[in-house]
Amino acid sequence: MLYGASSAGVRSMTASSGPGISLMQEGISYMAGAELPCVIADITRGGPGLGNIASEQSDYHQVVKGGGNGNYRTIVLARIRRRRWRI
Question: How much helix, strand and coil, in percent to the nearest 5, is found in the chain?
C-alpha cells in the first residue's frame, strides 16, 4: 500500500515495530530502487515475540544500515532522550 500511494504522488507514511519492519524490507528495497519518498516510523517495543522485554540495537542497525537488497541510503531521524539521575 505504501508503494502504491507513494507512486501515485500521495504523501505516505506507515509505522511498525521491529518484527514488522523486518517483514517490510523487500518493499522498502523496491521503494528505494524506484526512488519513491515515504516516511516509516520504527517503534521499538518490548513484549511477546521478542524473547525479552528490553529493547535491543537490532532495530537501530536495521534502519540505519538499510535492510533488504542494500545499495541505498536512508535518512534517519532519531530522538535522543536524556535522563537525569537523582540520588
Answer: 35, 10, 55
Listed in sequence order, the residues at least 6 apart from 11 whose beta carbon sits closer than 8 Å to its beta carbon are 5
Interstrand relation of 39-42 and 13-16 (parallel, antiparallel or unpaired): parallel
Q: How many CA atoms lie within 13 A of 50 on its CB side?
A: 17
Q: pLDDT tens for residues 3-36?
A: 999 999 999 999 987 778 888 888 888 888 898 9
- The pTM of the full predicted model, rounded to 2 decimals, is 0.69
Cα atoms in the Cβ-side hemisphere of radius 13 Å centred on 58: 13
Cβ-based neighbours of 82, under 8 Å, separated by 6 or more? none
